[in-house]
Design brief:
There is one protein chain. By secondary structure, this protein is an alpha/beta fold. The chain folds into 4 domains: about 5-35 and about 70-370, Alpha-Beta Barrel (TIM Barrel), CATH 3.20.20.300; about 35-70, no CATH class; about 380-560, Rossmann fold (3-Layer(aba) Sandwich), CATH 3.40.50; about 625-735, Sandwich (Immunoglobulin-like). Helices cover about 30% and strands about 20% of the residues. It contains 23 helices and 26 strands. The strands form 7 sheets. Strands 1-4-5-6-7-8-11 form a 7-stranded parallel beta sheet. α2 runs antiparallel to α15 (about 325-335) and α19 (about 440-450) packs across α23 (about 550-560). It is globular and about 75 Å long. It binds alpha-D-glucopyranose. Alpha-D-glucopyranose (GLC) binds near residues 113, 210 and 290.
């Protein structure tokens, strides 16, 4: 986030006029509180709903009699720095109070979660990352920013940049997968798309990179669980995407819930100050995630909420999203010198920087015409078209025996599975403001495309199974397309699963379908890699559909009928069975790399390699790789890597060519492969071309356990191919 000298002076002049109460007010992020209709705290009500003490209809009745407290008096008194919400009319009302009725007229940040689209929902991040298309990452983010501003949101709690290697974790769905480099490229593009280059333009927002940091390393894939790792691992794997986001100008960050090496990230001076603010030079602010500060008491690092609040502010956490800990305790803490005034000033300065940089002092309100654009209308045509493009590029062809796909248009298709007929399950986790009327189910997509299709529910992800419908489906159709997977509630926050096979009786449903003798195509709708060993053994064609957003139905139909040649890859490795997580391609070799022989790093009862490894994805055509060459550039600063790529199939296709590196002998054990670069190449049938990468020597190092970046002479291996497993390779000696 770059400010001009004049903007910095503006920040300082406002800060100089603020009272202690007003400074603390800026560190307070408020949410509209739900009041009335019940005599217990709202959190307790949610607990009662979650544990069944309250039914949905009782909860609905209570909600109907409740109202919202928007804390207008606190805003008027300068005790609120930011609000949560996505209602443009309410946003303007509250902003008017802040700007025209508070003493200093400091405008509010209006924050909301827009992770993969607001009204126009596009694929969940784990899917979109698999498109390996940086330009697409940026354009979808830019669209989300535009819709956010029109809805009164000027601060977006995105991008989520948590590298994750354990698919039991539900939030794998929200992030860019298992690889740090793909995560970093995703981060750069999302920050550019969200923040643009002139943030005061109405169509951009302040980004909030999250969850800082290493939240995806939660032990056993259980959400909110502890994380423990070396400093080297933290810098080489979990920090790369955040470092890239800061270089791109990320305006804010959200501290993560997890304790990292014994210190919760809400009160961690190493990650917040040493690394992020001093090391990376981030000039924006850090906000807590929900009750992250309060939870430090449960973590056992703070005696009480006051202690937690003081530790957080002193560690470099600048704004409290949770239950008013800064609001309740900071005044006394500053007056008693337990929080130095200059630390509070630094926090407020960072918050004011974002408001000045966004241009909120000049343009605090949502223009009426923006509000009208989305009120009760469908999403703009170009947004819907972009959502379709993103869905099409994120689809992954995992298996296609005997080229069963694409289907012949004349074939009668028995479409099976409750998910096939759903307009809502295609959306995925963390999307709140979409309209069902904008969505296209897979059933509707096939019908719109003119397929000869009939729908039979037959079963679903929550245990449904109907043998009669299975019989009818098998009787009617020439081919069966089974849409199976997870509901969107089975992934996302607080949705870890120990069993990551197809939920319910969906494998049993598949067995029954296969037993009828008809060919079966499996279309997956899921928020995480699933354990698909049995399916891969028995089902001839498998299409990974993820949760692709509002246009999922059109994209899947286009792929099934051959109007689209799938080009996506998996951004996270798929296991064959449960029990093999965490699973990732960029692992150390160990002294006994897994093999068929017993005394190696393997399992007695399961395969140890990924079923579908990072970067894997098939096409309706075929690509061949040859002639890998590595040449040191004049001056010795980089290597030029070239190879020949040929489309040896019968139709045009797009391949993601991936470049990997291995440091064969270093002062720390290094991964067997690390993604360094990738590019997408479209070739007509029979066409071939030379693909060229440039690998700077500066990019061939790693961080050691003191957080220092090392470049060490020695033997390296260069790999290039269509996945992390299928590569050409060359060895080179490198001198830095
Ligand atoms: C949640 C999530 C975070 C989200 C925040 C605000 O607990 O962890 O990703 O931005 O609350 O909704």
């Amino acid at each position: 986030m770059r400010l001009t000298q004049e903007q910095e002076r503006k920040v300082e002049s406002i800060l100089a006029r603020m009272t202690l109460e007003e400074k603390i007010g800026q560190t307070n992020l408020e949410s509209p509180s739900i009041v009335g209709g019940f005599d217990v705290p709202f959190e307790e009500l949610i607990e009662m709903l979650t544990d069944g003490r309250l039914s949905n209809e009782e909860f609905g009745k209570i909600m109907a009699t409740s109202s919202r407290d928007y804390h207008e008096d606190d805003i008027r008194a300068g005790r609120v720095g930011a609000m949560m919400g996505d209602d443009p009319v309410k946003a303007n009302e509250l902003q008017k109070i802040a700007v025209e009725e508070s003493r200093l007229g400091i405008p509010l940040l209006m924050g909301f979660d827009v992770i993969h689209g607001l009204r126009t929902v596009y694929p969940i991040a784990i899917a979109e990352a698999g498109s390996f298309d940086d330009d697409l990452f940026e354009r979808t983010a830019s669209m989300a920013a535009k819709e956010s501003r029109a809805h009164g949101i000027n601060w977006n709690f995105a991008p989520m940049l948590d590298v994750a290697r354990d698919s039991r974790w539900g939030r794998v769905s929200e992030g860019p997968g298992e690889d740090p480099r793909l995560g970093a490229r995703f981060a750069r593009a999302k920050i550019r798309g969200l923040q643009g280059d002139t943030a005061s333009d109405r169509n951009y927002v302040a980004a909030c990179m999250k969850h800082y940091v290493a939240y995806g390393a939660c032990e056993s894939g259980r959400d909110y669980n502890t994380t423990m790792m070396s400093t080297s691992m933290l810098h080489n794997v979990y920090l790369e995407a955040f470092r890239a986001a800061v270089e791109e100008g990320a305006a804010s960050a959200m501290a993560s819930f997890n304790d990292l090496n014994g210190v919760p990230c809400s009160v961690n001076p190493y990650t917040l100050r040493t690394v992020l603010k001093d090391g990376y030079g981030m000039n924006g602010f850090v906000v807590s995630d929900a009750n992250g500060i309060k939870e430090c008491v449960a973590h056992g690092i703070a005696a009480d909420e006051e202690d937690a609040g003081i530790q957080a502010m002193n560690a470099g956490l600048d704004m409290d999203m949770g239950p008013h800990i800064f609001k309740n305790y900071l005044k006394k803490a500053v007056e008693e010198g337990r929080v130095p005034m200059e630390i509070l000033d630094d926090a407020v300065r960072r918050i004011l920087r974002v408001k000045v940089w966004l241009g909120l002092f000049e343009n605090p309100y949502v223009p009426e015409e923006s509000i009208r654009t989305y009120a009760d209308s469908n999403v703009p045509e170009e947004h819907s078209t972009l959502a379709l493009e993103a869905a099409e590029k994120s689809l992954v062809l995992l298996k296609n025996e005997d080229n069963l796909l694409p289907l012949d248009r004349e074939q009668k298709i028995s479409l099976v599975g409750k998910l096939a007929d759903s307009r809502t399950e295609i959306i995925g986790a963390w999307a709140m403001s979409w309209q069902e009327r904008d969505c296209v189910s897979i059933r509707e997509g096939l019908e719109k495309a003119g397929a000869n299709v009939r729908y039979f529910a037959c079963g679903g992800p929550e245990g449904e199974l109907d043998s009669e419908e299975i019989r009818q489906a098998a009787e009617w159709g020439d081919v069966i397309v089974a849409v199976l997977g997870e509901t969107d509630a089975m992934s996302g926050e607080a949705s870890s699963r120990a069993d990551i096979t197809l939920p319910g009786k969906q494998r049993k449903l598949l067995k029954k379908l296969l037993k009828t003798g008809k060919k079966v195509v499996l279309v997956l709708m899921n928020g995480r890699p699933l354990a698909l060993g049995w399916e891969d053994q028995h089902v001839p064609a498998i299409l990974e559909g993820w949760h692709l957003g509002i246009r999922m139905g059109d994209a899947v139909a286009a792929a099934l009928l051959g109007d689209l040649n799938p080009e996506g890859k998996v951004a996270s490795s798929f296991p064959a069975e449960n029990g093999i997580e965490p699973l990732y391609y960029n692992h150390p070799n160990t002294g006994r790399p897994g093999s068929r022989s017993k005394f190696t790093s393997r399992y007695l009862d399961a395969p140890f390699e990924a079923l579908y490894p990072f970067g894997f994805g098939l096409s309706y055509t075929a690509f061949s790789y040859s002639g890998l060459k590595v040449k040191e550039e004049e001056g010795g600063g980089a290597f030029e890597i070239t190879l020949r790529l040929a489309n040896t199939g019968a139709r045009e296709g797009t391949e993601t060519v991936q470049l990997y590196l291995q440091d064969k002998a270093a002062s720390l054990v290094r991964p067997v492969k690390e993604l360094k670069d990738y590019m997408k190449v479209t070739l007509k049938a029979g066409e071939e071309k030379t693909v060229r990468f440039r690998l700077s020597k500066k990019d061939m190092g790693f961080y050691d356990n003191s957080g220092k970046y090392l470049l060490e002479d020695g033997l390296f291996k260069i790999f290039a191919g269509g996945s992390s497993r299928d590569c050409l390779e060359e060895e080179i000696m490198v001198k830095f």
